[in-house]
Amino acid sequence: MHEIVGIGASIYDTMMAVPGYPKEDTKLSAVSVWHQGGGPCATALAAASILGRKTAYLGTVGDDGAGIFMKEDLEKYGVNTGHLEVKKGYLSGQSVILLNEETGSRTCIWHKGDMPVFQPDEKQLQAVKDAKILHLDGNHLEAALIAARAARQAGVMVSMDAGGNYPGVEALLPYVDILIPSEEFALAFTGMSEAEQAAKQLYREFGPKVLVVTQGGRGGFFYDGEMHGYSAFSVQVVDSNGAGDVFHGAFLAAYLEGKNVAEAVTFASAVAALKCSRVGGRASIPGREEVRCFLKSGQTGSPTEVNME
Fold this sequence. Notes:
Blueprint: E1 4-7, E2 11-18, E3 32-38, H1 40-50, E4 55-57, E5 59-62, H2 65-76, E6 79-80, E7 84-87, E8 94-100, E9 106-111, H3 122-130, E10 133-136, H4 141-154, E11 157-162, E12 178-181, H5 183-190, H6 195-206, E13 210-214, E14 220-223, E15 227-230, H7 243-256, H8 261-276, H9 288-297
Parallel strand pairs: 1-4, 1-10, 2-8, 4-6, 5-7, 10-11, 11-12, 12-13
Antiparallel strand pairs: 2-3, 8-9, 13-14, 14-15
């Protein structure tokens, strides 16, 4: 049985490290280039798997090179792909990401491919019902709604990485038990000017069991009727791409093992910070022992360059 199953974005990333952000209509030589699997849901599952949880990705990819790579990359990090269908003749989702070595920032340009709308079958829905958590990121909205309803009926918790204010996402939020939006999403969705007020509105309107708002290098806060802040960890940022995705996977891993929300956000923040300290959206995810030692060191701070939104 898989503890965490996910429906959402899986992307083939082409990463290019550049000495500085390029000007429009110019050429710039990259310092380095590499390829990796990406996407909020898929990377969160990889993080949770690396941290010891049993995970599975539900969805489809094309049979192009990008799709085959993504399937193998998920398997490389321990994510079960038994419910991932490879569809012939379709283009998989891809992105090009520029990593600015001068600032540590990342800029992403992506294309979703031409895959048909994902419809979960009975076996995939049974995997949802047998799990402990269904993790979503707002992509594949129709499939996510079907799976979320099945999860609710089966008593399975639903987690959502609310990073993008996608059309129709409001239909999904009533089913979400663990809601972790970025500050950007919370403000855009509610129309509020302050994150704390946005969190209160989300809490009142949708009533999630857990509500955490991430604020990048400032850390973030969780709201349970009262505001509780948490700090970011101070690291030298090398690659911030995927930090938010890793945060979500690490939070779910900690929450499943019985940590309370305060402990889980601290653990997840540490995992995301360590990930940012080296190159790779997934290859840089630390194991449990490294996280334990890092937390024991008490290295806290508020590095503005860590982007987890």
